[in-house]
TrEMBL record:
Species, as recorded: Musa balbisiana (Banana)
InterPro entries referenced in this protein's UniProt entry, alphabetically: ABA_WDS
Residue spans of biased composition, Basic and acidic residues class: 17-30
Family: Belongs to the abscisic acid and water stress-induced protein family.
Region span, Disordered: 1-38
Pfam families the record matches: ABA_WDS
The protein's name: Abscisic stress ripening
Highest taxon of source: Eukaryota
Length: 103
């Protein structure tokens, strides 16, 4: 039984490629990757901001459930700020990758 446990393969959510080191990554691909993630962050900020405005409108329109809508509005606004921060971070990562691509 102990031998079977030693031979079991553990499954992980993230697959790490041992062959590829960070120096082997194509700089153009890395720049494109960060640009894509920046755009996803911008889209997330836009969507969360729109949802926050929707919830703000619902709070005024539905006074009986106003507290629920205000809580949802605050959460959506927080998500929008976080997503915008992620987009800002990826923008700087993209600039850094671009700088390294032309060195």
């Amino acid at each position: 039984m102990a031998e079977e446990e030693e031979q079991k393969h553990h499954h992980h959510f993230f697959h790490h490629h041992k062959d590829e080191s960070p120096s082997e990554v194509d700089p153009k691909k890395e720049e494109k990757h960060h640009k894509h993630k920046e755009h996803l962050g911008e889209l997330g900020a836009l969507a969360a901001g729109a949802y926050a405005l929707h919830e703000k409108h619902q709070a005024k329109k539905d006074p009986e459930h106003a507290h629920k809508h205000k809580v949802a509005e605050e959460i959506a606004a927080t998500v929008a700020v976080g997503s915008a921060g992620f987009a800002f971070h990826e923008h700087h990562e993209k600039k850094e990758a671009k700088k390294h691509a032309y060195e």
